[in-house]
Amino acid sequence: MEQDDEAVPEADDVVDLAGQVRDITVSGLPYGYDYKATRYADVILKEAFPGRFRDLTRALEQFKPTLDELRSGGGGRTVFVARFDQSLADQQEDGQTVWGKQNITIEKALGFEGNVAPVSKVRGHEIDMFGLGSLEQPLPGIAVEMEWNNKDPFFDRDLINFQALHHEGAIAVGVIVTRSADLQDLISKVIQSKDGGFKYGTSSTHWDKLVPRVNLGGGGECPLLLIGIRPEKIEGIELAYQVRDVLDDAEDLKANWRELEYSSWSEAKSDYDELRNEAFALMPPVSSQ
User: Fold this and answer.
1) Which of 21, 27, 18 is closest to 57 using CA atoms?
2) Is 275 left (phi over 0), alpha (psi -120 to 50) or beta?
3) Whose CB has fewer CB within 10 Å in the chain, the N or C terminal residue?
4) Mean pLDDT by 10 residues, the chain (289 residues)
5) Cα–Cα distance measured from residue 124 to residue 118, given in angstroms and rounded to the nearest whole number
């Protein structure tokens, strides 16, 4: 018997995967970012860890990288990533430090009551910024990693760490901050590297490399808050839009040169090249990259 196509439910109507990336449901997070969550991470963070929620909110509000900083750097820790981490480290509770870099050790033992021997000790779960659950009860805490422009397998490292630490009760929520899809789309086409290429490649850490990993199970059962830095958070980003507009004009010329009454592409190409040169002259590569 044939089944009516209209009666076949969509996949989203059949099953709601617990670990799937979803819109957040809480308010109070600052403007200038894309937010997604799994397993009610946003609710857990705000309701169960209000102090750490406030700390993260303040750090996100203060975070203002500049276009010049995006264009420069390389070869070491990005200056504005370090600044973001420091803005978390500066947050205190009752005058005491609650955020910092941590290497979390997990020990396991096996045996009978009164006769237990350690069987393993794992050290290596390094978290760039770990927030104590509270002064009275540090664990579970909140783990925050900003992945600005690493190779995209760094996301796998973070998600594996979060999964293991959540499983052992060390963290309640994992937070990953990276470039939003809109920011990646903009700067990947206009910020040049000194070697003649582009500084922000598609295989680096950004939103469209993170979300599919999470939807495929990355992070396991750890609730995740995903934060994408939008273009409007970047001071001076207007210049990047100007460069993109001129490049778009060049591509329009290339696509429509016949309608623009050029006799041949070779004739049109000189104007095309001139537009591209004009665009990249507006924002040349930084020699210190």
Assistant:
1) 27
2) alpha
3) N
4) 48 64 96 97 98 98 96 78 96 95 86 80 79 96 96 94 94 98 97 87 95 96 98 98 97 95 93 96 79
5) 18
Q: For residue 13, what pLDDT is reported?
A: 52
Take residue 209 and report the two structure tokens written for it. Answer: 């490399």
Q: State whether residue 84 is helix, strand or coil.
A: helix
Q: What share of the chain is helix, strand, coil (3-state, %, to 5)?
A: 40, 25, 35
Helices 265-282 + 238-256 axis angle, to 10 = 180
According to the CATH classification, is domain 17-236 in 3.40.190.10?
Answer: no
pLDDT of residue 6: 52
Do 255 and 247 meet the contact criterion of CB atoms below 8 Å apart?
A: no
Q: What is the residue extent of each domain of the chain?
A: 17-236, 241-282
Q: How many CB atoms lie within 10 A of CB 60?
A: 21
Kindly state the DSSP code that residue 235 receives in the 8-state scheme. Answer: B
pLDDT value at residue 64: 96
219's torsion region: left (phi>0), alpha (psi -120 to 50) or beta? Answer: left
